[in-house]
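Re: your question about Lipoprotein

S., sorry for the slow reply, the queue was backed up all week. Below is exactly what I fed in.
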Amino acid sequence: MKICGYILVFTVVFFTTACKQKSGKQMADVPDTTEVKAIPAEQLIEPGVSIGHIKLNSSLDSAASTLGRPDCSDAAMGSALYTWYADHDTTKYKTSIFAHRNMGGKDEAVQRIKKILVTSPWFKTSEYISTGNTLADIKKYYTLKQGNNHNAQGQTIQTYTDTEKGISFEINPSGKCVGILVYQPNSSADASINMH
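Result:
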């Protein structure tokens, strides 16, 4: 008799628990994606304006004070190219800044930032475009024209520019973005400067 009682209790508990489970046909909880979070200022790519806290037309010295001593630099004829690597490792993400002096101008001593390049996906546009996105993703938000190309690590990297907005995207042979550049809007001269 006791065994029948245990079997009855077990059966009731089993069916009660089974009835409370969701069926496999119900939809999974889907996060609400209608609210888009703003990109923090230190991560934001603003075409024609800045990448993070580094702003176009600010002094190269201000960028160096923010980022520290560059891992490599090259300067000649009033121009300079500074590059910083994540963890000072040349195989990791990089940030490069091209600056130029206004020779003969009142501020000739100041190297002004003309172009900024980042390869880290940590930086994003307000549309959440970053390195790693495809060219097709990027074309949804930018009017791109094919620009220059260069070779990096045995691959041909093609640059696509939206000169009107002041932004370019470096695309690898598989169609993925590997670098984002920001420069003055409508400046084809700044857009064509090679940062490599």
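The CA atoms of residues 129 and 138 lie 7 Å apart. The two ends are 86 Å apart (CA to CA).

Happy to talk it through on Thursday.
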